Amino acid sequence: MNDDSNNCIFCKIAKKELQTQIVFENEEFIAFNDIKPVSPVHTLVIPKKHYKNLLEVNDVPMLGKLFLTACDVAKKQGLDEGFRTVINTGDNGGQTVHHLHLHILGGRFHKWPPG
Ligand code: DGP
To answer: What are 4-19's pLDDT values in tens digits?
Structure first.
C-alpha cells in the first residue's frame, strides 16, 4: 500500500471514516456520489486499495473488474440511455484526488469532445 494512502480522502471514504452517499460496495470496490456533481447522476467508483492513478496500476484483473463494476452501478442507477465513464490522470488530465477513481456521468446528453 502506498504511503499517500494515510492522508487520502477516498481511502477514508472506503474505510467509512468519512461519510458519503454510498451506492454500491463489495470487498474490492466502493461507489459513491460525487460531492460536486456535474450531471444528474455523477458517481465515482474506486478500488478500496490505494492506487495514486491509472499509471500506478499493473493489476489487469482489477481494472477489468473496475469497468464491470461501473457498468453494474450505471445499470442500477437506470442509465439505460447511456452514460460517460471518465478516468482523469495526473495534472493535465485534471485529476484532483490522487486515488484512482472512475467517474460515471449520466442523466443528460454528454457532448464530445469534453472541455
Ligand atoms: P478528479 O478531478 O477526477 O480527481 O475528480 C475528483 C472528484 O472527487 C471531484 O469531482 C470531486 C470529488 N470529491 C472530492 N472530495 C470528495 C469528497 O470528500 N466526497 C465525495 N463524495 N466526492 C469528493
So the answer is: 788 999 999 999 999 9
CA angle 84, 87, 93 (to 5 degrees): 115
CATH number at residue 25: 3.30.428.10
Query: pLDDT tens-digit profile of 16-55?
Result: 999 999 999 999 999 999 999 999 999 999 999 999 999 9
Q: How many C-beta atoms lie closer than 10 Å to residue 10's C-beta?
A: 22
88 lines ligand 1 (CB under 6 A): yes
- From 50, 98, 99, 101, active-site residue: 101
Query: Which residues have a Cβ under 8 Å from the Cβ of 51 and sit 6 or more positions away?
Result: 2, 57, 99, 100
Q: How many domains does the chain have?
A: 1
Q: Is residue 112 part of a domain?
A: no
